[in-house]
Amino acid sequence: MATTLRTSDQSCTDTGIFVRQLRHLLELTQAQFAVKLGVATPTIARWENNRSQPSPLALMQLKAMLHELKNSPHKVQQICAQALLVEYFDEEI
């Protein structure tokens, strides 16, 4: 099963916003987030600034992070993770 972000007229912009939202939800710097994903720090900056898009493998990792956050002991993280899954991956609640 392929993992892709929901497409829209503004999918590039949406991807940058999504990556930034997830990183902030995890309370990580771009450098910390890059290490977690196994990519270079400038890659995160390019994703957030819409100069490039995450690969399908990176999208799978991002989606997996959201699923992990759904089980967080912090209710806000649970709610935000679920909202991001619905908004960007068309997952039902």
Care to describe what's here?
The protein is mainly alpha-helical and 93 residues long. The chain has one domain (11-89): lambda repressor-like DNA-binding domains (434 Repressor (Amino-terminal Domain), Orthogonal Bundle). The protein has helices at residues 11-25, 30-37, 41-48, 56-69, 75-89. Helix 2 crosses helix 3. The longest helix is centred in the N-terminal third of the chain and has 15 residues, at 11-25. It is globular. The two termini are 19 Å apart. Residues 19-62 form the HTH cro/C1-type domain. This is Helix-turn-helix domain-containing protein.
CATH superfamily: lambda repressor-like DNA-binding domains
Residue share in β-strands: under 5%
Query: What is the CATH domain class?
Result: Mainly Alpha
Uncertain ranges: none
- The topology string of helices and strands comes to HHHHH
Average pLDDT score? 89
Helix content: 55-70%
What key phrases describe this protein's structure?
93 residues; globular; 0% strand; 434 Repressor (Amino-terminal Domain); 5 helices; 65% helix; mainly alpha
